[in-house]
Predict the 3D structure of the following.
Amino acid sequence: MTQDNQAAVQPVNLPEILEEVTKLCDLYEKALMENDLDTLDALFWESEQTLRYGVGENLYGISEIRDFRKGRSGGSPRRDVIRRQITTFGKDCAVCDLEFQRPGAAVRGGKARPGSARLPAGRLPPPMCR
């Protein structure tokens, strides 16, 4: 690796950033299971550039995401988290990969939550997650 490339490499899993992102991902999962729409909305970037790719729908923009959540009777189907891997890159970027299983289901599902970035307001939301 050249010196220029080394300068571009961000430290992985800085403890304080990993702790911050872990708390936010925990908050997201709790809000998702409790159908806490206000918290879910607060955790997503308020932009029409926000994307949500779901099992049966693709949503483009925070307005579509909010409308989908409001129209989903009872909120997200229950799921048990089997494994979660959070990786941070520097102080401003993180990825959360989640493996889960629905109660009674024979197969496991997964969700990658890429693209979290520290916004100008200073908070680091979980990646644009579902």
In short: DSSP finds four helices and five strands in the chain. Helices lie at 3-8, 15-34, 37-43, 62-71. Residues 10-117 form a domain with the Nuclear Transport Factor 2; Chain: A, fold (CATH 3.10.450.50).
